[in-house]
Design goal:
Layout lengths: L1 H28 L4 H5 L7 H11 L5 H13 L13 H36 L4 H15 L2 H19 L13 H30 L2 H8 L4 H12 L1 H25 L5 H10 L3 H29 L7
Helix pairs in contact: 1-13, 5-6, 5-8, 5-11, 5-13, 6-8, 7-8, 7-11, 8-10, 8-11, 11-12, 11-13, 12-13
Length: 312
Amino acid sequence: MLRYIQRRLLIMIPVLWGVVTLVFFLMYMLPGDPAATILAQSGGKAEAIEKLREQLGLNDPLPVQYVRFLSNAVRGDFGNSIFLRQPVMQIIAENLPATIELAIGALVVALAIGFSMGILAALKCNTWVDRLCMLTAIAGVSMPNFWLALLIMYLISAINTYYGVLILPITGQGGIQHLIVPSIVLGFAVSGSLARLVRSSMLEVLRQEYITTARAKGLSRRVVILRHALRNALIPVVTMLGLQFGYLLGGTVIIETVFSRRGLGRTIVDAIVWKDLPVVQGAVFVTATTYMLVNLLVDISYAVIDPRIRYS
């Protein structure tokens, strides 16, 4: 197991190199001049813009800029933000917890709704309950996040206004009450695909002979489902959860913007708009690293779920 983890960590190095290299050249090709953008509000003249470009190192040849960026990135130094004039890693450290908090909240919502609907649909297969659950799952997958977010914001605002009390805050952040609505919106889409996968995995497991044997031994329905069926149906579901975590991290870009929340997703959007190259590069690096570590944990969890799996 230890050798497998070491090998996976080594594979992450060229992947991260490819990610930061791709982002570096894509950002370079974007139109716009950061120096001109910084001095635009103060009406900076051409001489001032040229001087600032020299200070930022933007006049250096592209290969020189790339080698300088790569040598600093290897040491974990992504420089300072062009606009905020703060270290990039400090900006990321201030915003990443809010994004992780939102992603975990959405994952809890997705697990609660997805598992409930998937198990219920499998147990009530080909009934109206099954069709209702799958219809809800399809709605979750097909509805755009921003549309669902605006719809829920409108409904909660109408309820707050009608009763004259603040039932749930819909923008900003501060406590767990600010996390409920964004987590539901972000988690609902993942719950749809999760419910469909849980249903199909449960149906396949419930037809196995060892489930029939467990029932013949007189075990209760709850024990058969939770101890025997659900555990063996978990591996494909856990695989999808690891992949969906990347979707949740990406989905925070829209949700944080719509709900006016601070976070890494909103920071990336602002940095791209202002062409703040160091912030974009640092944020993408951290996001990619987090995604790969989560998928490594998912792969390791296979051995915990199914003891027959061994890593050599």
